[in-house]
Amino acid sequence: MSFSINFPLFLIVASLISAVVCSALKTKAARFLCLFLTAASVVLNAVLFLYVYRTGQRFTYMMGHFPHPWGNELKISVLETVFSAAFSSVLFLSVLGGKKQLEEMMRPLKRHYFYTLCCLIQAALLALVYTNDLFTGYVFIEICTIASIGILEIKNTGSSILAAMRYLVFSLIGSALFLFGVIFLYQITGHLLMPNVKDSIAALQESGEYHLPLMAAISLITIGLAIKSGLWPFHLWMADTYGSAVPSASAILSGVISKGYIFLLIKIIYDVFGTKIFYASGFHRVLLILGAAGIVVGSVKALREDDIFRMTAFSSAAQYGYIFMGIGLSPVLGMQAALFHILVHAFTKPLLFISEGYLSDNMGGAKKFHSLQGAGLFNRMAGNAFLLAALSMIGIPLTMGFISKYLFGVAAFDLKTFGTVCVLAVLAVSTVLNTLYFARTILRIFRDNDEPERFKTVRIREQRSFAFAAILFMAMNIACGTLAKPLIDILARGMMTF
Amino acid sequence: MMLQLIWNHRIEITAIILFAVGFTTLLLHKNMFKKIIGLNIMDTGSYLFLTSIGYIEGRLSPIVVNGNTEMATYVNPLPAGLVLTGIVVSVSVTAVTLALTIRLYKIYHTLNLDEIYRIVHKEQEEEL
Question: What is the model's pTM?
Fold first, then answer.
């Protein structure tokens, strides 16, 4: 056993401690600590990934000297390391990229709290990804919820507090359903550690006992996590929330927090229910249909918006639809497409939100399309970042978005003929709608403004941290889009040892 | 037969009814305080359910007395531990919700969420 398998626990504890420390530091020091911690998490998870990938095994990490089935455990396999590294890097880049808005929009004495909350979010996400225990999952879901409420309302305007309240209500309903599902599972199996629960469920399924509570548990956990991550028709909070929060907060919420819940759901499908039982329960069809409906409804709503942040929010709703559709399609190819799309959306949507923040800043805080005319010409860096992210969302070749659309298309053939046609039709319609609403925005921000003397041109050296974050985001996107094969292989191998 | 079944599961059924009452209150009520009360009723429902799993009639609480270490004498301490953890979680969530409610009340002078939506929408339209 290598020393590196201590990293996850070490990172979770370090994040929790830093969250406390950050609240006592000055803004600059707190930001440095937060960035350092997220960067450290990327590096350590990458090291751990190399080790796990080379050995090709999965490890359980015992906590507190109690062996299973009594103690608490972390599970470490390829997918966990890949996704925690990805989540931490998105967290790092979102905090770094949205620095300017964070400084401007928050009261000076409260700024450092944002970094406290970011540390907490990182702790909760890593715990959600790595945990091997259902109840630990629930506790960290709630920690994540509280921290995300914090970053949403930190702007302290009426509309942002209202949006946070709305998100909180949906979120609490989601976690309560999840908790009830976990309690049902605990009642029929007597375990909370995922492998033990899985064994008991397999035995129960064979004997045919407790079929109803098992189905209830599956539906409660799936619906609970789907509500929390914003699957249609539970996406109602999204537009207000993303529209009124600080760009960094929107980026973090859409880029990583919702993805953390989806990853937990996928982990539970694999490690608790087992793919066989989940895909025999017929519940994946519900996810498939809701996901497909979410894609179409989200895209149509995005097309009808004239506020750039709200448009991106509805586009997010559509993207979550893709991910859930992938989970519903099939256990191997569909799931692979869903996992890939989690990465696509995590690397693309934060870039959109952050660059929109800079575009809107340049035009005096405007959010409506007509007042954003020419924003991409005044701030070339933000304009180009928005352009690339939009192309990736549409699914233009050479970007990550293309690969995930391709994977969804391939996975669609796992269904019967009618289903395949429907899924392909949804993909086609959504690509057209995506193109329409993003093309409209791109044409608007790159058109000459009628009164150019009113706005000032921003150069790269005035916004170094944003430029750095945007370039890294773009490089990651292009790299994963052109060299997708190794990444897909890693995901496929990860799913085998999950 | 049916009545017997219901009687045997009376605590679980009560818990589920409580959960449902809290759930609908949290989701549908306009008044923020009533929403918070709904949240707490909902959580109480799940804790009652969890507690009822952990209780076995005739067994003692899991504290070893008189050197009796026979497993069958005691109940499993885990459900009680889970309920305690859950209570801590729900206390902190309630605190956050109350804090948001106070802030909203200070700005808009009402506890009715629909009313607040109306005011915010009006403000946003006036801005344009």
Answer: 0.94
